[in-house]
Design brief:
four-stranded antiparallel sheet; 207 residues; 13-stranded antiparallel sheet; mainly beta; single chain
């Protein structure tokens, strides 16, 4: 069961064309045509989607320091179901009802097969986000518009990589990296080091 008052919608759709879900100078998330989508609702309001198709995530997690560039670009193929919370009005205009053939093409025996995977992803997401940097997920209050977008991607360790973004600000966390961008301040935390850059000045802390 999905935590709080969030629940999945009843209809599985697919994208009618390739879509860009998020894009800034630092990154982009795209999904291909025919990507499956099931809405994530709070009461009767649509607050996001679970997508499953062929997609791509790119994040420039490089920090410029006095000793040169540190970090690297993140480039991930999005072939497993992933979650998006935030403004979804424009996405809805590019969706149409998915058929049994569309579900089978992505490896689902039927609609319930996709729903089961989507519910599992949501349960893991809301469990992990409790007490996280985004704050408490309220039972009767959804993601506010001014909070931007939240994405949750599955990785090979059955854990979730999380991306939070609002305008040009972002936080990207994985099992071995935290990357934070806030205007002119950039923080990169990796095993063995923390890199901080602020208005052209940088510090590298070795652990």
């Amino acid at each position: 069961m999905i935590r709080q008052n969030y629940h999945l919608g009843n209809t599985v759709s697919k994208s009618t064309e390739a879509l860009t879900l998020w894009q800034t100078e630092r990154g982009i998330i795209k999904i291909s045509k025919n990507t499956l989508a099931i809405p994530l609702k709070l009461d009767d309001q649509r607050k996001g989607y679970i997508f499953h198709g062929q997609g791509r995530l790119l994040i420039d997690a490089i920090v410029e320091t006095n000793e040169g560039a540190v970090g690297k670009s993140v480039e991930n193929e999005l072939n497993e179901p992933f979650l998006m919370l935030g403004e979804t009005g424009e996405i809805q205009q590019h969706l149409t009802k998915a058929s049994e053939e569309d579900l089978a093409e992505m490896g689902h025996k039927n609609q319930q097969g996709f729903v089961d995977k989507a519910e599992d992803l949501c349960d893991r997401f809301f469990t992990g986000m409790r007490g996280c940097i985004t704050g408490k997920v309220h039972s009767h209050k959804g993601l506010e518009e001014d909070q931007g977008l939240i994405f949750a991607f599955q990785n090979g360790a059955r854990k979730l990589d999380i991306l939070l973004t609002k305008g040009t600000k972002l936080i990207y966390t994985t099992t071995d990296m935290v990357f934070v961008l806030d205007e002119n301040k950039v923080v990169l935390k990796r095993p063995g080091e923390v890199v901080v850059s602020n208005n052209g000045k940088s510090v590298i802390i070795k652990k």
